[in-house]
């Protein structure tokens, strides 16, 4: 039997300078240099899979771009995907279209918490979690993750349940990042069960962001928060989207899964109050193609990403950089504290770590501290790129570090 053709060309750079994509075109603004290798924004460099681009091309050829609305086919595509990929059966009535995951979190905060209420997040975490809480006039509570040894010997983030139990007493909501960006944890059933139990005890509603749900490494499975929520009798819902998995983030569109009819009604009212519309022609086309034709794709993609992950881990083996072995996401969290370079977000004079990566190594990574204080001294690298880009980035990194070490040893 011949192997199936990959659904995309993992060697081709689909994004390029001048294409309007943030990753390339905002380099000057973010890094003060246009020529860094961009390994920051969480989207992929290679093209979306062929079954998505073909469906979009077909739709484009129609020339019909009137107002769009999800049909029962779109909803069936979603429920089929959740059942097939995640063993997560949901009824069609539970699906609520949203313009994106972060906008849905903003609406959830407005709908289900009171002005000034405390909302818990778990830093280091995807940085809009901070802003979306502040933007709604709510108070942030940081339940920081802690690094501990895992049973397999690697250091990984774990949740601080003792602190969470205390913080939940006077909070109204928890924004959960499941799987976790930037640490790459795919939270397991025991961990999520503990979250659900604590939140149920203190009537804290959980909004579970599962946008990275399909991106687990070989042998690891995503646990939907739904699996533990019912037993704990916790108030919750999940928001997710196909954009990370199929590299269609710029097209937009996502959905919430809300089994509780009361919660769904209240959320729906909030969404309608914003007059956001129900979806774009292209978002819905991409979603349907992805979810009905892409069952094989996450594994195909993550095999490529795992290869890049292994190359980075190998390349930094004798540098003072410790990658945190990820279970999910195409993002790798690098502990650079051993490099001895200072890292402060607010003081441009005190960004030695960031400046080393930009000025000496020519690399545009995400600075760890933007994910919150526990990210100080870390950098996040995006692995969803052709392998030659990763190899070039690692060569530049090694060369820059060796040069720096050599200049330190040279007598003055
Ligand atoms: C954890 C997490 N949530 C949400 C998003 C963005 O979602 P959206 O573009 O649908 O708002 C990202 C993008 O990187 C993410 O990593």
Tally of contiguous helical segments: 15
Main β-sheet description: 7 strands, mixed
CATH-derived topology of the largest domain: Aspartate Aminotransferase, domain 2
What form results from the Cα inertia axes? globular
Helicity range: 40-55%
Which CATH first-tier class of the largest domain would you pick? Alpha Beta
Structural class: alpha/beta
> Rg from C-alpha positions?
21 Å
The CATH architecture of the largest domain comes to 3-Layer(aba) Sandwich
Taken in chain order, the helices and strands follow as HHEHHEHEHEEEHEHEHEHEHHHEEHEEEH
* Strand order in the largest sheet: 2-10-9-8-7-3-4
Low-confidence stretches: none
Give a list of the ligands: pyridoxal-5'-phosphate
Please tell me about this protein's structure.
The protein is α/β, with parallel strands linked by helices and 412 residues long. It has two domains: 22-49 and 296-406, Aspartate Aminotransferase, domain 1 (Alpha-Beta Complex), CATH 3.90.1150; 53-293, Aspartate Aminotransferase, domain 2. It is 41% helix and 14% strand. A seven-stranded mixed β-sheet has the order 2-10-9-8-7-3-4, sandwiched between helices. Helix 8 links the parallel strand 7 (173-177) and strand 8. The model has no long low-confidence stretch (mean pLDDT 94). Bound molecules: pyridoxal-5'-phosphate (PLP). The site of pyridoxal-5'-phosphate has 13 residues, from helix 5.
């Amino acid at each position: 039997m011949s192997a199936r053709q990959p659904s995309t060309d993992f060697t081709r750079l689909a994004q390029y300078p001048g294409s309007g994509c943030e990753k390339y075109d905002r380099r000057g603004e973010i890094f003060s240099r246009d020529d860094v290798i961009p390994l920051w924004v969480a989207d992929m460099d290679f093209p979306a899979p062929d079954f998505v681009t073909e469906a979009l091309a077909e739709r484009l050829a129609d020339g019909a771009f009137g107002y769009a609305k999800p049909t029962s086919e779109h909803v069936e595509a979603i429920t089929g995907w959740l059942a097939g990929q995640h063993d997560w059966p949901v009824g069609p009535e539970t699906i609520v279209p949203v313009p994106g995951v972060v906008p849905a979190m903003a609406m959830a905060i407005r709908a289900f918490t009171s002005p000034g209420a405390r909302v818990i997040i778990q830093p280091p975490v995807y940085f809009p979690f901070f802003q979306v809480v502040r933007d709604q006039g709510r108070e942030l509570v940081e339940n920081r993750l802690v690094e501990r040894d895992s049973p397999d010997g690697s250091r990984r983030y774990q949740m601080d349940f003792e602190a969470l139990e205390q913080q939940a007493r006077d909070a109204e909501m928890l924004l959960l990042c499941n799987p976790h960006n930037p640490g790459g944890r795919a939270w397991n059933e025991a961990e999520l069960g503990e979250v659900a139990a604590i939140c149920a005890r203190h009537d804290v509603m959980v909004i579970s962001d599962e946008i990275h749900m399909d991106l687990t490494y070989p042998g690891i499975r995503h646990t939907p928060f739904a699996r533990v929520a019912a037993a704990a009798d916790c108030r919750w819902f999940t928001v997710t989207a196909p954009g990370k998995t199929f590299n269609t983030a710029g097209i937009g569109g996502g959905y919430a899964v809300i089994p509780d009819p009361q919660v769904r009604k209240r959320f729906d009212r909030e969404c309608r109050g914003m007059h956001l519309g129900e979806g774009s022609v292209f978002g819905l086309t991409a979603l349907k193609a992805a979810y009905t034709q892409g069952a094989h794709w996450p594994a195909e993609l993550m095999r490529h990403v795992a290869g890049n992950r292994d190359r980075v881990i190998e390349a930094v083996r004798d540098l003072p950089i410790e990658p945190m072995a990820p279970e999910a996401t195409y993002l790798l969290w690098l502990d650079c504290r051993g490099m001895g370079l200072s890292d402060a977000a607010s003081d441009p004079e005190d960004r030695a770590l960031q400046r080393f990566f930009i000025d000496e190594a020519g690399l545009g990574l995400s600075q760890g501290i933007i994910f919150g204080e526990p990210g100080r001294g870390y950098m996040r690298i995006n692995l969803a790129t052709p392998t030659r880009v990763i190899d070039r980035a690692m060569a530049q990194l090694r060369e820059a570090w060796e040069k720096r070490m050599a200049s330190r040893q040279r007598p003055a």
